[in-house]
Amino acid sequence: DTAVSQTPKYLVTQMGNDKSIKCEQNLGHDTMYWYKQDSKKFLKIMFSYNNKELIINETVPNRFSPKSPDKAHLNLHINSLELGDSAVYFCASSERGSGQETQYFGPGTRLLVL
Amino acid sequence: AQSVTQPDIHITVSEGASLELRCNYSYGATPYLFWYVQSPGQGLQLLLKYFSGDTLVQGIKGFEAEFKRSQSSFNLRKPSVHWSDAAEYFCAVGAGDDKIIFGKGTRLHILP
Lengths: 114, 112
Hints:
The complex is a heterodimer. By secondary structure, chain A is mainly β. Chain A is built from no helices and eleven strands. In chain A, strands 2, 4, 5, 6, 9, 10 and 11 form a seven-stranded mixed β-sheet that branches. A four-stranded antiparallel β-sheet of chain A has the order 1-3-8-7, with no helix packed on it. Chain A is globular. In chain A, 33% of the residues are buried. Chain B is globular and about 40 Å long. By secondary structure, chain B is an all-beta fold. Classes of the chains: A mainly beta, B mainly beta. At the A-B interface, β5 and β10 of A face β5, β6 and β10 of B.
């Protein structure tokens, strides 16, 4: 009955590979987000989707492509992985998507690119 | 544009001592302010939030925060910390658009 879940929890891969991270929320929220947390713990938003529509797209390389098959799921696909992509990626959701709402975070996916 | 500053990267306090974590924000209008906690290896959990009304906000786990508009601050406090409070604490500000901007975090260490 986890509210926001992510798979996998850990991901170790070689440079140049393509990988996906999946996120699901069972809170009935309209908006979902992807954040990247670097080694210095800095948390930066990458994308947000509201009802399957892209709302926020920060300055992120186009190797990163989010996909939202329905409003309960937001997946992140990364092409041609680079060493600098190593980080913890957090999925989050909120009820409607305004900057005034509580966001509920998943446990994170720890990506290590070798 | 809104921004959040947490001036202390690390804070160390003894178990049972009081705690104050500092947060300053920059935003032209009335901000929406949040404190989140991240335990080791975990995601972020909301501690408390301020939208309007009483400037002293109570949160979970015995935490409180006070909004001071004149100082553009939203400091987090706890009268007596427990070893389980050791974690990373993030202050965040939300605006009228869709984003919440997070500070860089303060790592809290607890001495036995």
